[in-house]
């Protein structure tokens, strides 16, 4: 999930003279719409997650990574069958918390766990139906989306810069007190929340009544 950058049709020259990656936004959106349409038609509960979910909530970005869908573990076999019947390649990686598919040349991750937290009916029920390039689909609620990003921070994966634009854009829609409670005692999420306070994105904890 990178910060907002302008489109780079066919690539371009970066500020240091290097080549910018090609803008993959439209192909990622086409893959998202195809898989979401199949999941909706089959009646599988799901919610869009990750960078494309942030995009659906209005976070400006040039998409460069895969699409993430949160699904229930018990639906994985049926979803695999439905995708394969539609001609979409599905594979099973060594990790046991997702299955992978490929559509329009883009990777699709269908995830049973968001940062080690199982996807539940309650999580999916809180999803908001939003248009994604004109196709309406369930999208993780802002607090759940930010919670999944905070929970993914670790000593080995701690890209605050990628998540900062999402926090800025969605700050008024997120229950920050809930996220503070859920991440208490976890150094990386707490450090990011402190950074948001220092940047005046959210109110400091001590300012709360």
TrEMBL record:
Chain intervals for the UniProt region annotation (Disordered): 1-24
Highest taxon of source: Bacteria
Biased composition (Gly residues): 8-17
Pfam families given in the database record: NTP_transf_5
Alphabetical list of SUPFAM superfamilies matching this protein: Nucleotidyltransferase
Protein name stated in the entry: Nucleotidyltransferase family protein
């Amino acid at each position: 999930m990178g910060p907002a950058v302008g489109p780079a049709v066919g690539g371009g020259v970066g500020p240091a003279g290097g080549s910018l990656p090609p803008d993959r936004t439209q192909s990622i959106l086409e893959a998202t719409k195809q898989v979401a349409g199949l999941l909706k038609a089959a009646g599988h509960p799901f919610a869009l997650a990750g960078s494309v979910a942030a995009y659906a909530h209005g976070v400006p970005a040039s998409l460069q990574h895969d699409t993430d869908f949160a699904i229930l573990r018990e639906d994985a076999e049926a979803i695999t069958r439905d995708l394969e019947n539609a001609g979409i390649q599905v594979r099973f990686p060594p990790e046991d918390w997702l299955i992978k598919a490929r559509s329009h040349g883009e990777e699709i991750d269908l995830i049973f766990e968001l940062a080690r937290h199982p996807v539940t009916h309650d999580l999916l029920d809180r999803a908001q139906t939003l248009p994604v390039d004109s196709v309406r689909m369930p999208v993780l609620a802002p607090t759940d989306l930010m919670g999944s990003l905070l929970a993914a921070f670790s000593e080995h994966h701690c890209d605050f810069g990628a998540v900062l634009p999402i926090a800025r854009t969605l700050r008024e829609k997120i229950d920050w007190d809930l996220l503070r409670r859920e991440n208490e005692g976890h150094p990386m999420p707490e450090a990011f929340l402190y950074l948001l306070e220092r940047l005046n994105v959210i109110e400091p904890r001590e300012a709360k009544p």
